[in-house]
Amino acid sequence: MHSTIKNSTIYLSQIAISGVLMLVLVLIISQYLMPDELGQFVLAQVYAGIAVGIANFGMLLGYERNFFEFEKSKVDSAKLISSALIFVVINLTILLYAVYLFQLEISNLILSENAHSDLLLVVLVGAMFSSLSQYYLTFLKNSGLVKSYAKYVIGNSAIYFSLAVVFMVQSNLGVMSLAYAWIVSNLILFALLFLVLRRELPIGFDRGMLKAMLKISLPLTPRILFGFMSTQLDKILLGLIGSSASVGIYHIGQGFAATIFQFMTGLDRVFQPELYRKLFADKHTNNSYEINNYILPFFYISIFVALIVVLFSKEFVLLFLSGEYQKATPIISILSIYYASLFFGKVTGNQLIYAKKTHLTTLVTLLGIAINFGLNIPFIINWGIVGAAWATTISGIIMTIVSFYFAQKHAKITWQWKSIFTIYSLFLAVTAFAMVDYSFSIDLYKSLMLKLLIVFLYIVAGYMLNIISTKKIKDIFERTGNEE
After folding, report:
1. How far apart (Å, rounded) are the C-alpha atoms in residues 346 and 142?
2. Cα dist. 42→45, 109, 163 in Å?
3. Which of 452, 472, 453 is nearest to 462 (CA)?
4. I need a labelling partner for 442 at 20 to 30 A (CA). Which of 41, 151, 458, 482 fits?
């Protein structure tokens, strides 16, 4: 019991530390880089992420799914990850060579003409190392080695933060400060993981294991491409229709709102392995409410974090960001609705992978892109970055609902909808209040008192709905099956 509580605390602490470092970095960036410079770096990351995602062919999800079939055999586990990595490294090498040959043409096409000539290539290499590191990090996570996992992730964030600050403050590198910090930090992470784990995970290759992973991952390749485009389409279209400065401001607001998703990811590392085990044990059919009872407290806490982000976003922007980034406040509130809805996206993704229905995620993602694209263009033209935020939120929620439908059809989980709707409705009401507060500038003292009252009422609602209690909060950590 003690070790599982400790493991869960470490996961959440890692998210908190990494999140704080990135938020502080955002504050520093707003003082040293103009929105158009930040926008160029963000766009480079977006396009590099799309390219690297394609080159992976969804292999990470195939590896994670099959990990649990071989976790009891060290030899097979080593062959599984090595087979995946060898396949991906070959693909990434081909990608890097192609981009190197045509980097100027590609950069001029997708970035502004005044962008640094090496920006895209440097960011691409950094994205490659980050991608390869995810396989080792997934191994650590699924093996219950949470201390090691947290150590490497925090170390990576700290190195990136330190290098980015030093480069920005002590040099005239400008936007390349972020690019160089990105590539160096990810190279160090991958090198350390490879060297430390090489004894436990010696290099090997198994064609059968690779084929088995490809059967899972290949149907996901279009989904990886379209899914990444769907989540980044707002920035892509802002860069094409608007400007890189718009992308920079939007990114700041999105980054703060994304702390909700980052926190969910921390919780996901706690409940996802156990959710898989419950699905493989047919707990969704043998005990209809077992998965619901396990997941619901995680949902409640995730929405609580979203509520805090929305309530105090105005104060954060006013106090810490420079004048060029003040328009980020409404972006935070709007996108928080989207990120809060993604909790069930995490669950439905596991359901479809468990049911081997990953091809459905491609169809859902295509639908999401069509809706996102159709909404973003007129919304951006008419309302700029606010329009992009609303288009992304609306299309994202629709995708979540459709994914939920298919997931329930093939691996049904019985949910207690009264509690879920009540909690999410309270969050939407709070978001509406935050927007009114921003638009009409409610007196600071009255606003603060109302916000503290809202937080108190949300906690009371959790107890009244029997979602949380002292025991259940502990159970969030104690129920996980991973131990070091």
Report:
1. 16
2. 5, 15, 17
3. 472
4. 458
User: pTM of the full predicted structure?
Assistant: 0.75
What tokens does 411 get?
A: 């691996």
> pLDDT tens digit string along 398-428?
988 888 888 888 778 888 888 888 898 999 9
For 408, residues 6+ apart whose C-beta sits below 8 A from its C-beta are 351
Going by C-alpha positions, the residue among 474, 361, 467, 402 that lies closest to residue 6 is 474
Cα Rg, the chain, nearest whole Å = 22
Can you tell me the distance from the alpha carbon of 358 to that of 370, in angstroms, rounded to the nearest whole number? Answer: 19
Categorize the per-residue pLDDT at 315 as very low, low, confident or very high, splitting at 50, 70 and 90: confident
Residue 115, number of CB atoms within 10 A of its CB: 21
Which DSSP state fits 206?
-
The tens digit of pLDDT for each residue in 108-145 reads 777 766 667 788 999 999 999 999 999 999 988 888 78
- CA within 13 Å, CB half, 92: 23
3-state helix, strand, coil in the chain (%, to 5): 85, 0, 15
Tokens of 417: 């909808």
Question: Residue 102, SS3?
Answer: coil
Residue 268 in this model has a pLDDT that exceeds 80: no
Q: What is the DSSP string of 466-481?
A: TS--HHHHHHHHHT--
Per-residue pLDDT of 137-154, as tens digits, reads 998 888 878 888 999 999
Question: And the tokens for 11?
Answer: 């996961």
In angstroms, the Cα distances linking 366 to 58, 276, 355, 374, 384 are 16, 26, 20, 12, 24
The per-residue DSSP string of 266-309 comes to: HHHHHHHHHHHHHHHTTHHHHSTTHHHHHHHHHHHHHHHHHHHH
Write out the DSSP string of 309-367: HHHTHHHHHHHHS-GGGGGGHHHHHHHHHHHHHHHHHHHHHHHHHHTT-HHHHHHHHHH
Whole-Å CA distances, 328 to 247, 331, 385: 11, 5, 9
Three-state secondary structure call for residue 1? coil
**Which residue from 71, 483, 137 is spatially nearest to 79, judged by alpha carbons?**
71
